[in-house]
Amino acid sequence: MKGAEVLLNSLAASGVDACFMNPGTSEMHLVASLDSVTAVRAILALFEGVVTGAADGFGRMADRPAATVLHLGPGLANGLANLHNARRAKSPVVNLVGDHASYHKRFDPPLESDIESLARPVSGWYRRTRRPEDIDLDVRDAVSASLGPPRQVATLVVGADASWLEAGPPRARAAREELPRPLGRPSQVSDEVLASAAAVLRSGEPAALLLGGSALREPGLVAASRICEHAGAALLAEPLPGRLERGAGLPAPQRLAYFGEIAMAQMAGLEHLVLVDASAPVSPFAYPDRPSDLVPQGCQVHVLAGDRNDAVGALEALAELVGAPLGASRVVVASRPEFPLGPLTPESLAAALGALLPENAIVSDETITSGIYLPGATAGAPRHDLLSLSGNAIGQGLPLAIGAAVACPDRPVLALEADGSAMYTIQALWTQAREELNITNVIFDNGSYAILNIELARVGAGTTLPGPVARSMLELDRPAIDFVAISEGLGVPASRVTTAEAFTKALSQAFAEAGPHLIHALLPRDGH
Amino acid sequence: MKGAEVLLNSLAASGVDACFMNPGTSEMHLVASLDSVTAVRAILALFEGVVTGAADGFGRMADRPAATVLHLGPGLANGLANLHNARRAKSPVVNLVGDHASYHKRFDPPLESDIESLARPVSGWYRRTRRPEDIDLDVRDAVSASLGPPRQVATLVVGADASWLEAGPPRARAAREELPRPLGRPSQVSDEVLASAAAVLRSGEPAALLLGGSALREPGLVAASRICEHAGAALLAEPLPGRLERGAGLPAPQRLAYFGEIAMAQMAGLEHLVLVDASAPVSPFAYPDRPSDLVPQGCQVHVLAGDRNDAVGALEALAELVGAPLGASRVVVASRPEFPLGPLTPESLAAALGALLPENAIVSDETITSGIYLPGATAGAPRHDLLSLSGNAIGQGLPLAIGAAVACPDRPVLALEADGSAMYTIQALWTQAREELNITNVIFDNGSYAILNIELARVGAGTTLPGPVARSMLELDRPAIDFVAISEGLGVPASRVTTAEAFTKALSQAFAEAGPHLIHALLPRDGH
Predict the structure, then answer these.
(1) pLDDT of res. B528
(2) Contact of B294 with B281, CB cutoff 8 Å
(3) Where are the beta strands (DSSP E) in B297-412?
(4) In b/e form, how buried is each residue of A286-299, taking b as 16+ CB within 10 angstroms?
(5) CA–CA gap between residue B104 and residue A283 (Å, rounded)
(6) Residue A527 scores a pLDDT above 50
(7) Which segments of chain B have a pLDDT < 70?
(8) Counting C-beta atoms within 10 Å of the first and last residue's C-beta, which end of chain B has fewer, N or C?
């Protein structure tokens, strides 16, 4: 059996059954083997940023990795931005990068480059498979590594010769028939740490739990809410969660705002901040006259659990320790906004989404400024998963939706996109059409990089009024982008709406019909 | 004056007058300064691969660098593939990457990553500017470094604080008013090397000159042809030239084929291969039963000039040394194909292009398999520049055309694109429309990654017939991509053609009208 076939078999035996790819010549043996290993579903994308974003979305929703197949250094490079987001989301990804045959690299052919230097910044684990006999072990190790703790991007580079040569017997390994296990188990939090956190909560001083990562699913939310309700503490969530379970029937932590000054207002007066698989709040960017560290002055930061700990176990133990009764947690009551009428605005868009969000939806949210009303409008909607822009590298939303839809074929997926971000990886629509995925894409089109208009003022660069050239660098409506035409050109049926009523109708229809849809929501232009 | 303004002034004073950008928050001071430094033309792109490809195209045609502005590690990552091509083309590029303020990085905000690790593989020169006082010198050094020899990508990382702080007096530097000069002068080839090459050519043994890089402009071509005609040697060119001057009135070296076995046939029987700013021919990929090194067995390889030498000077000196008379060079006679009739095929497409190619055109060629008839059909067309896919990283052609059009606003630019490659950086069309560039884009649509169908067989992966899954990974017509809709959606008028006559008409019209156009040329599907 050739190395390529061993590789696919090892993926399948490791429980990796989805492979997003944009292969090239050095990956042709892998492609040729796809028909003999039917347990791995191969999904083609037109650009590598779609491949990696889809793998991230799959990992977030399936809690196990999908694989990528990328073509040498430049193919990897095209996928790095969404691997950066996957790294920040602590998403498990097996990132397979094809390379030249080992003996060919010294000839410095046109596509030769330093793959390791490119891969390291996003990869928690990196290896080059040397011989076809090693592939089975290397794949299993990559799957294990991707599962962490913490979950991470595991990059395995596969030279073309390792793919095409016959593999001898695989290196021995105990219990080969078992699925690869995580590198280790999340460690239990010590009694001292628990006691210290309990003392903080019993002190009566203003305190908050700040939840991130694995604490943002139902068990963590319930235990944390139970603690906070009992102890009178605030319940906060990190600003860019990889995956947050929310909606009616679940506790709702207050998500820290993207902008530092709002986040600081949310934390004002706190004397203790207890981190639960979250980092201490920092400003996404530096500004000349604002702090980088957003923790209020005099507020003590305590770590209950990090990303290698069992955060949910720690929360449950802490709840017991502080004597919080079972059932003390407070959950959101079901409620939906009225159907909005009149002009389409960020507010009416959000209301319509809140009114119509289907049960058990997955929401890939990359709306940036236009999505400001979404958290409020969807808070009491039926339970859903929210996937946010974890690493701030735009171009995530449409690809992420692909991975989520492949991981959860029975759940409706909603991709909420800003116009500027959508154009980074617009090729994703083609894969959505090709795979007939149930994704409703909504483009929030305000005709600009609106976030940058805000940032231009915030960084102090706009203390004098920005000139026409500066302003034009943030404008996306000369020429206006016709997302309906682009979407239809890529095989996804689309419509344009300019009123709340039309949006509501288009959204209902998209949810009711199978396959992908796109709604181009034209928002008012600022200052026009 | 703030660092950002110093930076733009330094670019302008260094002769850098075009800046392609996709900025973010950390680059807002640069953006805000654009109105005060009007000598630098700022050009926005919707994706960083467009930014870097445009900078490459500008460098190839202007022989001096444009600047980029990219947003931290992920923004750089999105631009790396076309920087890889620029590196291979030895194109001068000043690659500016914004970063967090220096003191902010330790907080590990969401967009923090290892920029140096990402940049090194494509950058011949790399520096982080530390203080606003250093910016002027750093920019001038980056411009110098980009000019080489050899020409290269010079990456300068600019932290947000270096941009927003007031710059003290710049560090002293002699002759500040002069334009930055290249790092050094291309060195003259020694008499020994010239004598050795002359001896080879006088030996009567079958020999060829293989031209690359700087030898592929008129002076190098003329001197090389003069030598070859006199000495009875073959005149060859590298397979993926960054820029090749060709057409009626110029000597025409035989370009080595992309596929190794054809290149080997072109070199069969040679006993001497003399390299002139070119590498010894290697196969772009390794194949199980084919050589990596394409030089015929027993053929000696001699280096007349490398990329740090004055290659043209070496050719002219060699011509004198072998006694080749002035005027001995053989040039192509003007000739054009007949206007083709009937169905649109790769052959009729090429004939129409040969028949209509305007005087002094710049051709960005990323046609891959569908362009096989182009070299022949355009050989006798009016003189033009050909820019090829120098680093084999697809997604180059449409962005490259932008840079060429900005560098040479009076010349018609033709982007010849394969369907698969076009979809990598299709966002380029929007910038073409926004800047009203005279670019005619032709999409050669065969509905597949056709090169990979060939490679699938060549790597031996297709010895048994590829199965339906493998074949589907190379197919782009499910769903079919409507390039007319996409182009119009991005503001570029477009038409679809299926006959040679319709193509001829659309092409004539596109050449006659100002601004960008796109022609979607639907080719027959193999096996359909």
Answers:
(1) 39
(2) yes
(3) 300-305, 361-366, 384-387
(4) bbeebebebbbeeb
(5) 9
(6) no
(7) 170-177, 461-464, 526-528
(8) C
* Residues of chain A positioned with their CB less than 8 A from the CB of B25: 284-285, 451-452, 455, 458-459
**Residue A40 pLDDT:** 97
**Contact flag B120-A120 (C-beta cutoff 8 Å):** no
pLDDT confidence of residue A528: 39
List chain B residues with CB under 8 Å of A472. 42, 44
Say whether A100 and B286 touch across the interface (CB within 8 A). Answer: yes
Nearest to A491 among B479, B488, B490 (CB): B479
* CA pair distance A180, A520, nearest whole angstrom: 43
Which of A113, A345, A152 has the alpha carbon at shortest distance from A242?
A: A152
In this structure, the number of other CB atoms found within 10 A of the CB of residue A166 comes to 11
**Spatial distance between the Cα atoms of A392 and A368, rounded to a whole number of angstroms:** 10
pTM to 2 decimal places: 0.97
Q: What are the C-alpha distances in Å from A53 to residues A39, A79, A396, B70?
A: 22, 8, 6, 20
Residue with tokens 């089109």: A445
Q: Which two structure tokens, joined as six digits, stand for A474?
A: 């943030």
**Nearest CB to B34: which of A23, A423, A470?**
A470
Instruction: Inspect the interface and report whether the beta carbons of B32 and A113 lie closer than 8 Å.
Output: no
Q: Determine the 3-state secondary structure of A290 from DSSP.
A: strand
Closest in B293, B420, B489 to A483, CB measured: B489
Predicted local distance difference test score (pLDDT) of residue A171: 62
Q: Predicted ipTM?
A: 0.97
Is residue A280 within 8 A of residue A295, CB to CB? The reply is: yes
pLDDT score of B174: 47
What domains can be seen in chain B, in order of their start residue?
3-164 (3.40.50.970), 191-321 (3.40.50.1220), 346-522 (3.40.50.970)
How many whole angstroms separate alpha carbon A233 and alpha carbon A211? 13
With cut-offs at 50, 70 and 90, classify the pLDDT of residue A71. very high
* pLDDT recorded at residue A174: 47
Yes or no: say if B56 and B80 are a contact pair by the CB < 8 Å rule: no
Q: What are phi and psi of B45, to 5 degrees?
A: -125, 155
What angle, rounded to 10 degrees, do the helices at B135-147 and B3-13 form?
30
Residues of B in contact with A47 (CB under 8 A): 395, 423-424
Residue A351, pLDDT > 90, answer yes
How is residue A212 annotated by DSSP?
A: -
CB pairs under 8 A between A and B: 317
> In Å, what is the CA distance from A109 to each residue of A508, B49, B280?
53, 22, 10
Interface test with A, best of B31, B97, B114, B165 (most A CBs within 10 A): B31
Chain-chain contact of B283 with A486 (C-beta, under 8 angstroms): no
Looking at residue B464, its pLDDT comes to 67
pLDDT on residue A462? 57
B-chain residues within 8 Å CB-CB of A44? Answer: 472-473
Of A473, A450, A447, A478, the residue nearest B42 (C-alpha) = A473
What's chain A's average pLDDT?
95
Q: Using one digit for the tens of pLDDT, what is the confidence trace for B111-168?
A: 999 999 999 999 999 999 989 999 999 999 999 999 999 999 999 999 999 999 998 8
Per-residue pLDDT, A448: 87
Q: How far apart are CA A476 and CA B88, in angstroms?
A: 32
- Please give, rounded to a whole number of angstroms, the shortest distance from the CA of A165 to a CA of chain B: 9
Distance CA A447, CA A465 (A): 20
- Gap between the Cα atoms of B300 and B451, Å rounded: 32
Which chain A residues touch B113 with a CB distance below 8 Å?
84, 121-122
pLDDT at A91 over 80: yes
**Max CA pair span of chain A:** 70
